[in-house]
Design brief:
The protein is of the alpha/beta class and 127 residues long. Helices cover 44% and strands 13% of the residues. The protein has helices at residues 10-17, 23-26, 37-49, 57-63, 73-80, 91-102, 114-117; strands spanning 6-8, 34-36, 67-69, 106-109, 122-125.
């Protein structure tokens, strides 16, 4: 598709898993995509909240080409640096944006509002 690195937000993966609008845009990006373990945790929690069995989901995503990135001190600093009281971005949102900025990639999300609050990060809003 492109040489661009795609960084998946939990919202994009949840849209894919639930067959929501935009899911078709996420599927071709999986092979070679990155995802913060913070966002994986959010996917697991939200899926389980809706009674979805998530046993092995991380392995299924890895088999599709998703590479999970740990969350270390530099990541914590980069994520904290994206906080501002006016943006309303959650920890998961900021972790995704920080990872995308770190790898000079494109954050893939359903959140169109990110475009206004993160102008220095490439963002692909899938709906």
């Amino acid at each position: 598709m492109t040489d661009r690195t795609f960084v998946l937000d939990a919202s994009a993966v949840l849209a894919l898993l639930q067959g929501e609008t935009g899911a078709g845009q996420v599927e071709p990006l999986l092979d070679g995509a990155l995802m913060s373990c913070v966002n994986l945790s959010e996917v697991l929690q939200k899926a389980e909240q809706h009674d979805v069995d998530t046993e092995g989901l991380e392995y299924d995503l890895q088999a599709l080409g998703v590479d999970f990135r740990g969350f270390e001190v530099p990541d914590a600093r980069a994520t904290a640096g994206r906080w501002a009281p006016t943006t309303g971005l959650s920890l998961g949102d900021r972790a995704c944006l920080a990872l995308a900025a770190t790898v000079d990639g494109t954050a893939v999300t359903i959140e169109r509002g990110w475009i206004a609050v993160a102008p220095h990060v490439s963002i692909a809003a899938i709906r």
